[in-house]
Amino acid sequence: MDSLDREVLEHARDWFAQGRRVWLVTVVETWGSAPRPAGALLALRDDGLVVGSVSGGCVEDDLIKRVQTGERVGKPSLIVYGVAKEEAARFGLPCGGTLRLLQEPVTNAKWIDEVLERTSRQELLTRTLDLETGRATLAPAQRGEAFSFDGKTARAVFGPRYRLLMIGAGQLSRVLGEMAKALDFQVFVCDPREEYYTTLELPQVTWLPGMPDDAIAAFRPDAHTAVVALTHDPKLDDLALIEALKSPAFYVGALGSRRNTEKRRERLALFELSAGEIARLHGPIGLHIGSRTPAEIAVAILAEIVSVKNGVEPVQKKAPQDEEACLATG
């Protein structure tokens, strides 16, 4: 669950606790060119205050007007915007897009507390809502599940935020951490070298003390975790990779040239890692975009991480003849 969805649920819970009437509005279906995907979430208060987004703004304005003029939905119901081309244009739905929304009154906030608490423990949940009865249930979800709607039942998936663990606190880590935060990753860094971590200034980044292998073992990477080794020091990077490659982390990468990456694979084979585990290593790390500066290298690394996260084959990798020209991007 990204930080925006968490913010929506937190506001809905807090407003409800204050005695306000609150509705959750979810995009359940889109046709054509719609601004927000299925599953996008918004909380609407009885005075028209909103948090979150289901469109580019015009639909939100209409929802606000509805409650401000006295509309009070008492059970889950659907609203469709953009059926006619003129209406689509009015509500900012380009190319004749259509948007179907589910309005749901918040009648009990206990499920919100449970979702927030369990996702903070890195659990992945699905909430199934029966539109006819209004009954909702929570159950464990599997990675890869997504929002679904069959006309009668809506299944929303709430999961932990994606995490990025960086081994190394150098200049590249500083830039990479800032960019990763902008992409809504929770960012962590581990580097036992005092001369590096004492000068790292990264607000909202969690420091993990100790050696990388111990830190990763305690951190327990899961399927929403990416681990990148950035120190260029085999004594630190290899320790981290040995633990990370045995974990369910969806991405494990290490900075270094193609030549150094092959040497690293040979070293990792000495530590009882299977061929399959070693094959999970992304190296040279990042997509080939001609990166030179730390910021450009960070872009290349994050582009590859996002492509893997989204299930898109990272095809723009360096060819062997590019090796000497692109050692910095590793």
Give a concise summary.
The protein has 330 residues and is an alpha/beta fold. It has helices at 3-17, 58-68, 85-90, 110-120, 171-182, 194-197, 212-219, 234-245, 258-268, 275-279, 294-309, and strands at 22-31, 41-45, 50-52, 77-81, 98-105, 125-130, 136-140, 148-149, 153-158, 163-167, 186-190, 205-207, 225-229, 251-254, 281-282.
Give a structural overview.
With 330 residues, this protein is α/β, with parallel strands linked by helices. The chain has 11 helices and 15 strands. It has 2 domains: 3-158, no CATH class; 163-329, 3-Layer(aba) Sandwich (Rossmann fold), CATH 3.40.50. Helix content is 34%, strand content 22%. It has a 6-stranded parallel β-sheet, sandwiched between helices. Strands 3-2-1-5-4 form a 5-stranded antiparallel β-sheet. A 4-stranded antiparallel β-sheet has the order 7-6-9-8, covered by helices on one side. A hairpin with a 4-residue loop joins β2 (41-45) and β3 (50-52). α5 (171-182) packs across α11. Residues 321-330 have low confidence and may be disordered.
